[in-house]
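Hey team,

Filing this mostly as a record. A colleague (T.K.) asked me to run one chain through the structure pipeline before their review meeting, and I want the input and output archived in the tracker in case anyone asks later how it was produced. No errors, nothing strange. Just documentation.

Input sequence:
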Amino acid sequence: MNIKNPIQAKYRIAVLGIGGVGGYFGGKLAAHFAGSTNVEIIFVARGENAKAIKSRGLKVVTNQEEFVAKPSLVTSKAKEIGKVDVFLICTKAYDLEESIVKYQDCVGAQTVILPLLNGVNHAETIQSILPKAEVWNGCVFIVAKLLEAGVVKIDSEIRLLQFGSNDLTRSKMDKFAEVLKESGVDVQLSEDIDKTVWEKFIFISALATMTAYANQHVGELVRSSESLELVSDLISEVTAIAHAKKINVAENIAEIALNRIISSPPESTSSMHHDFKKKGKTELETLTGYVVREAERLNLSTPVYQRLYQELRTKG
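Output structure:
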């Protein structure tokens, strides 16, 4: 590949948040482009995770393979990173605003920011903090987790990254997609990124809210007629918001989302459920609170979301 930047000798990609998502996609990039004179991969990490990666690289384990990725740089300091071409944001949603402010000096005139977080309004949040920045939107379909410092485990066969922009030029997106494809990432440019993100959100918001509220895995949830009815109500309420916002989701998206939950592995759950069990920070405001607030703004009724949101707030 002969990727050249008119300002910089290398095409520089920084990956912020080396957990499951950032570890897999960043790991594929770092492993493939190790030693490249054209592409530089930077891991933005700290603490024990950063120490482990600096010492022995990032180990990525899938059902088919294991590989070790050694990025060009591992750091948490904006001054050491410098300006980058693409900033992949793979943090938890509750760390987004603080992270964007902390690393805003890494964003130059040529930089594109791409959030890969659960939720639907992260591009808007980033744009509000950095109004002159070019921000794309994206989402991933993967089950991945940080097993321990420096080790990421992938539990799903699907490892898809979709991204796009509804109103920006295509050339930069094509270039980044080419880089991802060369590294072995399954990537798709979405022609309607709002549709893509919202169709995932309808599923993940209802699943996260219900599993956290009921403290149930999917298998327990689908065996309970009461829980299953609540899930169906949640899906209907969040789907109504998508329609009110004129998002072009599939006509049968509610049925698709419900069937996807029912057909999930019985032992599966949501990351928000895990976070509640650990008594740590959660994505409640992103996955549940956002629905309640947006419904109020649109004058829509979401009684199930409101009730479960209020009860979950008392658990947090």
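Quick notes for T.K.: The first strand starts at residue 11 and ends at 16. The chain has 13 helices and 13 strands.
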